[in-house]
Amino acid sequence: MYSFSGMYELWGLFIMNFTDRYRYRCRHLKLVPFHLLSQLDLTRFWDRVLRRAGLPIVFSQGFNPRPLLSFGPATVTGVISWTEYLDMTFYEFIEPEQLKNILNSQVLEEMRVVEVNSIPLDFPSIMKSLISVQYAFIFKDKGNIGNHQVLFSIEDIEELERKKMEKQECMISFLFKKKNILLNPYKSLEFMPKESGFNRENLVEIIKQNYYWF
């Protein structure tokens, strides 16, 4: 366990502008049942994790200091995610692999941290670095899903791949680009041709699969 005394936390709160800072970008899972967490719940979750772990996190300034965390686009409640990102800043250097292990000692497998990278302090934020988000839509296939290409009428969303899965299910992946990164994936079903069978009635689940960066 990585342990720090209370003195370090006070140091981070009150004189963080006079110390070195080290920034990290973390990728973690958000699987069932944590897919029901809202973005506010997720922020509180990582706040508690960092405090329990005793990590030397930098806090915001003001009357209500909070750990200095920065998240990617909020995942819609109910959507499973393989790729949640957040940035965190510390006032002591920690090896990325060590940080990953420390964080994973405080979370369940369904929220496991899968990757940690050290990044420069002036590195662009997650939102500024992001160019697209890939979602997978899994549908029940009762024989009414054709093999034709699905045509989207919404700008900047592309079909990437489509394949049959076990238990007569069909997966279709879409890339949400540029301004549509924040589009509710459930909302995108309205753009599916009705005859395609890709609708809410046949929908099994949605998975956020990947981010693509500049």
- Mean pLDDT over the full residue set: 85
Number of helices: 5
Note the run of SSEs as H and E.
HEHEEHEHEEEHE
What is Rg?
Answer: 20 Å
* Main sheet specs: 8 strands, mixed
Q: List unreliable stretches of 5+ residues.
A: 2-8, 10-18
Just name the CATH architecture of the largest domain. Answer: 2-Layer Sandwich
Domain count, please report it.
2
Q: What is the strand content?
A: 25-35%
Count every beta strand, where a strand is a DSSP E run of 2 or more residues: 8
Could you name the CATH class of the largest domain? Answer: Alpha Beta
Shape: elongated
How far the N terminus sits from the C terminus, by CA atoms, comes to 36 Å
- The level of helicity is 10-25%
